[in-house]
Design goal:
With about 270 residues, the protein is of the alpha/beta class. The protein is about 30% helix and about 15% strand. It contains eight helices and ten strands. Strands 1-7-6-5-4 form a five-stranded mixed β-sheet, sandwiched between helices. Strands 8-10-9 form a three-stranded antiparallel β-sheet, with helices on one face. Strands 2-3 form a two-stranded parallel sheet. Helix 1 packs parallel to helix 2.
């Protein structure tokens, strides 16, 4: 395992290590991911996903394929794809607790914990490169605590090069009670699920052994939308073109956070009015 500063840094290292010239990635993905790939002069070939969040196509046998474990809820998809394609790369940035699949897997610490950076890369082939240690200093804040600071941090991170994880982040990670965090996430997720599943256009998989990043919510119910207007809920990525199949169940997806009992109770109480 290699500890780097960002998930996108992990992807860049994967591309360099394997000399990847072309990679398949889903249309429904973050544009910072696209930019990281293009920064490495690697060609992107996009693919669609279906309502089960599986690729809606077959890939050439030797292709490099990036699959995102969406919301930390589709680990089974990762397993299925890893058995089918030998050059699978798993993006676990929304699935910190998920297993590793494929030739490389990477995650993102700051999506789950109160740290300014950090990502763990599991890779089969050892990279032959050296990096500086990241010493970026940010005042960390979650979206529910300070939305403007959260957005400001995101912009600063866009300019970061590939570096090793900050020592201060490693110190924080060593103090985290992971079992307690898992329990809290599952408890809050289930509360959202009981109220919102019937309105949700996203076909959510069973939790089973998954520990989610968020409760993803997509709806066209105007009453529910109105009730949520006062909350700074993170929106996951840009909307897809209307003629894309994914747009029918992936528009204005809200990522309901699972790391704050107080914030989740506020949302739930509002929904119950």
């Amino acid at each position: 395992m290699i500890k780097l500063n960002l998930g996108r840094s992990c992807l860049k290292v994967i591309i360099r290590t394997y000399g990847i010239k072309e990679i398949f990635i889903p249309y429904y993905s973050c544009k910072t991911l696209w930019q990281a790939i293009r920064d490495e002069n690697c060609k992107i070939k996009f693919y669609h996903i279906d309502k089960d969040f599986m690729p809606a196509c077959e890939f050439p046998k030797d292709s490099y394929i990036l699959y995102i474990n969406y919301f930390g809820l589709f680990t089974k998809n990762c397993e299925i794809l890893s058995e089918k394609y030998k050059n699978l790369i798993t993006d676990n940035t929304q699935a910190f607790y998920a297993p590793n699949f494929g030739i490389a897997t990477f995650n993102s610490l700051r999506k789950f914990f109160p740290v300014q950076n950090g990502a763990y890369l599991q890779i089969e082939k050892e990279p032959k490169m050296n990096f500086e240690t990241d010493n970026l200093k940010l005042e960390t804040a979650g979206i529910e605590e300070n939305y403007e600071l959260f957005k400001s941090n995101e912009l600063k991170l866009n300019n970061e090069e590939v570096k090793l994880i900050s020592p201060s982040v490693e110190d924080i990670m060593a103090q985290i009670n992971y079992e307690k965090d898992k329990i809290k996430r599952l408890k809050i997720y289930n509360k959202y699920s009981q109220i919102l599943d019937k309105y949700n256009l996203i076909k959510l998989s069973k939790l089973k052994d998954n520990i989610p990043y968020c409760y993803p919510f997509c709806t066209n119910d105007e009453k529910i939308i109105a009730k949520l207007q006062e909350f700074p809920i993170l929106k996951l990525w840009d909307n897809l073109p209307e003629n894309f199949y994914e747009n029918s169940f992936l528009f204005n997806v809200g990522a309901f956070p699972l790391n704050s009992d107080i914030y989740s109770e506020k949302i739930i109480n509002k929904l119950l009015l």
